[in-house]
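Reminder to self: tokens first, then the designed residues, so the page reads top to bottom the way the pipeline ran.
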């Protein structure tokens, strides 16, 4: 199989699974300069020989996307990310999980620093409950980062000074988007265009604060912990949206509504009537007393119907 891959002359995508292979398979990839792999998916590897093989395959000069699936083992990191002196000049899309051990973090940061063209980065939580080591990266690293998906603790450190256009924050526990949080996330070198946040503790002035720090925002998704819908909510949205003149798409999730869904839809349509010159879509996901299962509203402005 490995010999066949080495003979391919066209670009291809490859997934490495935790299956058996010859113990010395990685030795067949002694010269990586002609590898045509453009996308490599590493799926829960634990066999040492498979980890070594994947490490060699990742050194191909055309690799533009690398995805490391989450798992409960840290065996992958010490060897897979440790390639001193190698530059991943073609790598633009990367999905990894947050290291746990201090030594693994050192290798991980060195790896990121060796990806000068990286533009899309997703960092997932590790499964370990142990405290995570410090996440510090030189400001000159990953200078082209534009799409970033990470836990808040990492995002606030890596956004600073980088041209992040779209930011997704994933939190294990609920977090309130306080002004201090937003100010730290607004330190990129370009205005943020998209914001997607999990576990938001909704408060009445959250959109006002978002508008203050991200006035050029076009796409906003907020997954709230829980919030009871009331007839003042959409009236406030009407006023708050005027402070976000570039907003095109707005979605919220997990609202609880005690009023009939028909009333909620009518209120939403009234909001669309005054924003249909800007918004291309607006949506809510809510639960009602009448319907215990979730109902998702995705409504287009009247001009788009």
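Designed residues (305 positions):
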């Amino acid at each position: 199989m490995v010999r066949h891959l080495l003979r391919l002359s066209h670009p291809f995508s490859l997934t490495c699974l935790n299956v058996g292979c010859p113990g010395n398979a990685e030795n067949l990839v002694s010269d990586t300069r002609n590898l045509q792999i453009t996308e490599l998916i590493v799926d829960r590897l634990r066999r040492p020989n498979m980890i070594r093989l994947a490490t060699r395959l990742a050194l191909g000069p055309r690799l533009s996307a690398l995805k490391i699936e989450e798992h409960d083992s840290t065996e992958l990191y010490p060897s897979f990310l440790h390639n001193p002196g190698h530059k991943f000049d073609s790598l633009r899309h990367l999905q990894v999980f947050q290291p746990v051990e201090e030594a693994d973090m050192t290798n991980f940061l060195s790896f990121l620093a060796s990806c000068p063209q990286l533009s899309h980065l997703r960092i997932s939580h590790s499964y370990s409950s142990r405290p995570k080591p410090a996440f510090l990266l030189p400001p000159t690293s990953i200078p082209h980062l534009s799409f970033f998906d990470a836990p808040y603790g990492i995002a606030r450190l890596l956004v600073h000074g980088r041209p992040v256009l779209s930011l997704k924050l994933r939190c294990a526990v609920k977090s309130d988007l306080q002004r201090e949080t937003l100010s730290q996330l607004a330190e990129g070198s370009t205005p943020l265009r998209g914001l997607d946040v999990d576990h938001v503790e909704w408060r009445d002035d959250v959109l006002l604060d978002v508008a203050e720090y991200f006035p050029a925002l076009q796409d906003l998704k907020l997954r709230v912990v829980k919030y009871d819908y009331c007839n003042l909510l959409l009236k406030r949205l009407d006023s708050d949206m005027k402070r976000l003149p570039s907003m095109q798409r707005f979605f919220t999730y997990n609202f609880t509504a005690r009023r009939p869904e028909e009333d909620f839809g009518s209120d939403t349509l009234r909001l669309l009537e005054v924003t249909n010159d800007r918004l291309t879509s607006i949506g809510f996901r809510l639960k009602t007393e009448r319907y215990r299962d979730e109902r998702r509203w995705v409504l287009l402005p009247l001009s788009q119907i």
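The longest helix spans residues 261-275.
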